[in-house]
Amino acid sequence: MEINIILKVIDECLKNNPCKIEIRYNEPMKDHTTFKAGGPADCLIQYGYGEGFPAFCCDLLKSAKIKKVPVFILGGGANIVVSDKGIRGIVLDMSAWKDSAQTFIFNEEIIIFKSGTKIDDAVNAAAENALEGLEFLAGMPGTIGGAVWMNARCYGSEISDVLDWVEIITSGGRAADNSACAEPGYYVTKMENKNSEGFGYKQSPFQKMDCIILNAAFKTKKGDKNIIYNSIDKYKNDRKEKGHYLFPSAGSVFKNSREHGKPAGQIIDECGLKGLKKGGAQIAAFHGNFIINAENASASDIRALTEETAAKVKSATGLILEPEILFIGDW
Fold first, then answer.
1. Core vs surface per residue 191-228: b (16+ CB within 10 A) or e
2. Is the Cβ–Cβ distance between 67 and 9 less than 8 Å?
């Protein structure tokens, strides 16, 4: 895509909403994903500092839509595979939109994090203040925004169980002060999580929205700090023992389905597919539902192995595995 068009969009938005951002062109996306694979983004924008950033984002989404410049919202890059050809348009990297450990906001037993906060940092902040409820996320890669967007789930709990509200940028609706929007555009608004409406297994209402997650508030309760840290250590050690940190990966590749009667990893293992390779990508010998970047794998290697695994499982069992990872960019 023509860089001049992208540059014009960014300059106009910065003029109206001054803030410090870092802009990189032709940025390798392998440096921004846990798979360590993928081609360049035409333009990557990352937050620096300044209160004008949310307003800048609102203006950016509106202007980009008018100029037909695609915008992809990036969190921690923990559940995506970016094409070897890269991503056209703008990648808005929210990973630097976060507070320091000293400035997290607490309201009794509600703890609020900006979307770029690393998941482990959020878990540790709650633990340090003897607040329990987020331990199940311990050791998970990525950011709070990404975890909310995908309704991250592990050890029998999921984000929607503890989510109180989310502040987002979205089109139409109502502005942050609850007044009607004066004109078409993007505005900051708050969504309450009532009865987990719109959430499901690895699903959230944000997946169907044109939005950016800015902040999220979580319901916790007072607990014993030692017990909380013991739980955190238990979950982290379990991930370590299962090989989560041995190679670049995105964790589980396929969703688990109750209809299948057993986890996807077990199904893949029973089909004798552990160790299957495609280029530099490989089904991990230690976990059937992990595809790892074993040897400088390309994004095409990872996608081809994902598709081949699903095809072999369907042929052998009749079961259809649904990928959990997302294939992003110019395929």
1. bebeeeebbeebbbbbeeeebbbbbbbbbbeebeeeeb
2. yes
Position of tokens 């540790």? 124
Render pLDDT for 179-217 as a digit per residue (tens, 0 to 9): 444 566 899 999 999 878 899 999 999 999 999 999 999
Any idea of the CA torsion for 293, 299, 304, 305, to the nearest 10 degrees?
Answer: 10
> How many whole angstroms separate alpha carbon 17 and alpha carbon 58?
10
d(C-alpha 221, C-alpha 109), whole Å: 6
Please tell me whether residue 257 adopts helix, strand or coil conformation: coil
Q: 3-93 in CATH: which number? A: 3.30.43.10
Q: Are 251 and 245 in contact (CB under 8 A)?
A: no
Q: What pTM, to 2 d.p., does this model score? A: 0.91
Q: Can you give the pLDDT at residue 177? A: 53
Say whether 252 is catalytic: yes
Query: Phi-psi category of 151—alpha, beta or left, where left has phi over 0 and alpha has psi -120 to 50?
Result: left
Neighbours of 71 (CB within 10 A): 21
Q: Could you report the per-residue pLDDT of 236-262, keeping only the tens digit for each? A: 999 999 889 999 999 999 999 989 999
Of these residues, 132, 135, 167, 324, which one is catalytic? Answer: 324
Catalytic residue among 160, 231, 252, 298: 252
The highest-level CATH class for domain 244-328 is alpha beta
CA distance 244 to 251: 7
The overall average pLDDT reported for the chain is: 93
Q: Spell out the domain ranges in the chain.
A: 3-93, 105-226, 244-328
Query: Rounded CA gap, 123 and 111, in Å?
Result: 10
Q: Which two tokens stand for residue 240?
A: 């370590």
Active site includes 324?
yes
Determine the CATH number of domain 105-226: 3.30.465.10
